[in-house]
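User: Run a structure prediction on this.
Assistant: Running it now.
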Amino acid sequence: MRAAALSTRSFRNLADARIDLGAGLTVVHGTNGAGKTNLLESLFFALTGRSCRTRREREMVTFGSELARAEVELEPEPGESLEPVTMLASISGKDGRRRRIDGREVTPEDDRRRPALSVFMPDRLALVKGPPGPRRAHLDRLAAALWPARAAARADYARALAQRNALLARVRRGTAGPAALEAWDAELAARAVPLTEVRAAAAAELEEPFTRAGERLGLPAAGTLSYRPQAGERGVEELTAELSERREGDIARGFTVWGPHRDDVELRLGDRSLRRYGSQGQQRIGLLALLFAEREALRRARQALPLMLLDDVMSELDPERRARLVDLLDDGGQSVITATESQHVPDGSSHRRLVVEAGSVTAPGGPLEGAGGG
């Protein structure tokens, strides 16, 4: 499915309008503060019911309004035997967040009908230079998209970990005996093995396309991606024994210190950590390379390509790297990219271009339907 059109109402500074999106690349340009990022956020909100920028989601409501709403019209890609879908999300002080699909409440199954999303925003650099948790979660989401039948591995492990941690807390308080942990050592180990296996498989799918995308985007040395499981490649019996050996320390702390919940995904530039030693520009390219590697992995798995939302991605790229980025975007799938200057994005015959000025969105041919409201 692709996003054919976006409609907004009282969403931050955006004027109420219906905005047609290109089947390939849509370029949104305007000065800083015009509302370009708000447009990307509204599209993300319409598809997911969440903001991609803030946890204080009532900030999305235009000052003086009661409700913010974003609606996206989805249509099937060529060859897809699917019906068009309309997804709507709203937020208000009275009703909180609400979601609709074709006029009814959204169910978890309905989210499978929308495109996956791949987001680049400056604060997303935490995925490269931040702690391991977001990278683990990111890899888990990719694994679930690549192999839906294995999607439960992370949740299964999380449930076993929560149970063991709760028991550790009781043992620490003296309300349970240490022997009770034996069963949960074995259970946690049994859940850890399939999780590390699917993570390792997903990381393996990313290794070559990550290096290739980094090279195309101009990293000065080879970019590499590797999964670093804390438990290595141990089997269930070995993991159970390790947890048993660490039990005394876990009881003292009241939680499980060792296991897949401490794993990391390492990104390197040559022989150095991109997180620790990469420049801001290199980390931005590393994040882009990761997103394009994931898109390539999904393509190879014959899964639908994600909708890519790229905000202010051109500002630190030279003209050659900008051209290379557009070539990658033109290699399939749908994307929406923002820029402060239209010339920052090399033109293509299939690109749709939009201009944002003080919240009003226009196309080169004139104003859009409904544009001009507050």
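The first strand starts at residue 2 and ends at 9.
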